[in-house]
Amino acid sequence: MRKRIVAGNWKMNKTYEEALSLVSEIDNMVRDEVNGDVTVIVAPPFPFLQSLGKLTQGNDLMHLAAQNVSEHDSGAFTGEVSASMLKSVGTEYVIIGHSERRMYHHEDAQTLYKKLKATIAQGLKPIFCCGEPLEERDADNHFEYVGKQLHDSLSYLSNEEFDQVTVAYEPIWAIGTGRTASSQQAQEMHAYIREQLSRMFDAEAAFNTSILYGGSCNPGNARELFAQEDVDGGLIGGASLKSRDFTDIIKSF
Ligand code: PEP
Prior knowledge:
Elements: E1 5-9, H1 16-33, E2 39-43, H2 49-56, E3 62-66, H3 83-88, E4 93-96, H4 99-104, H5 109-121, E5 125-130, H6 134-138, H7 142-154, H8 159-162, E6 166-169, H9 183-200, H10 203-208, E7 211-214, H11 222-226, E8 233-236, H12 243-250
Parallel strand pairs: 1-2, 1-8, 2-3, 3-4, 4-5, 5-6, 6-7, 7-8
Helix pairs in contact: 1-12, 5-7, 7-9
The structure holds phosphoenolpyruvate (PEP).
């Protein structure tokens, strides 16, 4: 069965105290107001994972993600954090290949593949991001661009490894810009992604993979986006920093 997922990518925001408050507010609101079957994930910065891991462990509603992971298991990699470290503090998911990491940290397809492998090897679940820049969409090359991103990082995984992966489609022109993809643009890309996945892996795995939309998703547009057949939830940036907005998005299925 395909899971419905709403994940909040906090990026480099919040202090420790603010992080604790935000998670407990979301937890309370979700408990009181959400009755559907939705997997709620928060992805805070690294320093807060351990404390938030204590809050989310054994919590059936909230799950914890890291925003990044090293492709290496351990050793002399100053400043890096391994998948086993993330696991040891209660992290369940890892965002891999966010466009900001591809852009500012030059993470290429091969590096992302290694991060996927390292993550899955520790029993963690990757949320693999893809999405085109504006010039590729304007040139009508967006399907090809995203197809190549999927192929270049995912296609070397086995079917069993791929079973652990959630995909997030995040058109770069929609991230943090206030300009969201229309529900039709999202649906056609999600359907295309699912079709590409069915060529790389078995059809059932592709059918069961959750594909999230990300890019200026908010309480005003989430319902229409989530109503699309191949949109299984959202990866939320800005709106995940406010408990009211994030919960309203979770309630949009
Ligand atoms: C993101 O960066 O993953 C994202 C979707 O950001 P925003 O919702 O702010 O566009």
